[in-house]
Structures are given as structure tokens and as C-alpha cells.
Amino acid sequence: MAQIETEIKFRVTDIAALEQKLQGLGFALQTARTFESNTLYDTPERTLRAQQQILRIRQYGDRWVLTHKRIPLSMSRSDANEGRHKHREEAETTLGDGAVLAEIFVHLGLVPAFRYEKWRTEWSDPTGHCVIDETPIGTFAELEGPAEWIDGMTASLGLSPEDCLTLSYGRLFEAWRKQTGSTSEHMTFEAVAGTDKICP
């Protein structure tokens, strides 16, 4: 069943210091640092991207997950993308074998449009989640939960509004490519290896 996802990202310069703050705020570790691989599927014409939708197969440790995201039907595109938070309607389900579904997608005419990797650590409190993502272009954290909770947590973590990001990893990767001049097409550790990992 689809639900509305509300989140922000922020850059992380000191993982240990952030984790210490999270523990002090009552967060508990949910998933230890685990490798994650994601592939976004689209038509060759990138129809889903143009509609700000994603269709993703994720392998997180030994789990496979299929996710579809889109702008909520109850919101305009500008309302979903602008302001302090990012809003998406998300439908997600676990899979038995993501590689088999990937084959099916290709047979149906979809193509693997973008791949990205990270090492993810998951924390949560009774209301929301904070995940720490070590990516090939830098480390980011995401706060996901009710908007009021996100605003309270950003303040408790000492973040300013300018620190909060609503860009997807695909958009962050595009910005990084422009800054570095990289020709990498995917945000994987192998593709980015040897390039200065600075994200604007």
C-alpha cells in the first residue's frame, strides 16, 4: 500500500559524532552498516524521469526490495518539490529474487537507467528514522518522518535550513559530475574510483 514519504538529506563530515548525537536524542541502531545496490529502471525515452517517478530494484544485504515513487496525487509538483521537505508517494514490497525481476523489466522494454551504491546504517526513534549513507560522492544522512518531527530533529542536530537538501541521489550525482568534470554514468564505487569525491 502506498504511503507519503517526507524526508530531507544533509551532508555528514563526522559519522561518529552524528551517531553519538543520535544516541543522545534517543535513537537506537536498527541496521548496522550494510552494503546497498540500487538500479532505477525506465523506458529508453526516460518517461518515468520526466514524470518525476522512479521504479527501483534495491539489494540491501541479502534482501531485495521493489520500490515505486511518484509525486503524491494530492499535491502539485511544486508543492512536492519545494519548501523544506521532499514529499513522495511510495509503494514498496520485498522480492524473492531481484535479478529475475530485472530480467522481466528488460523483456518488457525497460532499461537500467541509473545505478547507485552506498553503505547504509539505519537508526530510529519512536517517531522517525535517520539513515547514514556512505556514497561514492560523500556521506549523507536522511531524516524521514512527520514534517514537524524532521524540523525538530534538524534543530536538535544543530542544522540550519541551508544544510537541508531535498535532492535525490541522482540529482546530487549530476551536480557532482558538473563540479568534477567526471564522465561516470553511474554512482558506483568502481565508476567513481580515482575521482576526487567532493559533492557541491
Please provide a written account of the structure.
- The chain has helices at 15-24, 47-50, 77-81, 98-107, 147-156, 169-180, 189-192, and strands at 3-11, 28-42, 54-60, 63-70, 86-95, 111-124, 129-135, 138-144.
- The radius of gyration is 17 Å and the shape is globular.
- With 200 residues, it is α+β, with helices and mostly antiparallel strands.
- An 8-stranded antiparallel barrel has the order 1-5-4-3-2-6-7-8.
Quick take:
The protein is α+β, with helices and mostly antiparallel strands and 200 residues long. It has helices spanning 15-24, 47-50, 77-81, 98-107, 147-156, 169-180, 189-192, and strands spanning 3-11, 28-42, 54-60, 63-70, 86-95, 111-124, 129-135, 138-144.
Task: Count every helix, treating DSSP H or I runs of 4 or more residues as helices.
Answer: 7
Q: What is the rounded distance between the termini?
A: 36 Å
Identify the strand order in the major beta sheet: 1-5-4-3-2-6-7-8
Q: What letter string, H or E per element, gives the SSE order? A: EHEHEEHEHEEEHHH
* Strand elements, count: 8
Shape: globular
Radius of gyration, rounded? 17 Å
- What is the beta-strand fraction? 35-45%
- List the uncertain runs: none
- Percentage of residues in helical conformation: 25-40%
Largest beta-sheet characterization: 8 strands, antiparallel, barrel
Question: For the residues shown, what is the average pLDDT?
Answer: 92
